[in-house]
Design goal:
59 residues; mainly alpha
Length: 59
């Protein structure tokens, strides 16, 4: 039992998986914050871009 517990404590695979999960959570929170902050301006940007592309393809 001692050998199993010692190997379990020294196993670092779970630690790196936890680090990746935390990093993924931070990225999701950052992308959500950016999307919420700039949603109006991004919508205007894509609307203008779509209008220009549609006008260019009609000519």
């Amino acid at each position: 039992m001692y050998t199993f517990l010692n190997a379990f404590v020294r196993n670092e695979r779970g630690v790196s998986a936890l680090e990746y999960a935390i990093m993924a959570g931070i990225v999701v929170v950052a992308l959500t914050a950016v999307g919420t902050t700039f949603s109006g301006s991004l919508q205007g940007l894509f609307t203008a871009l779509f209008t220009k592309i549609t006008a260019a393809s009609a000519t």
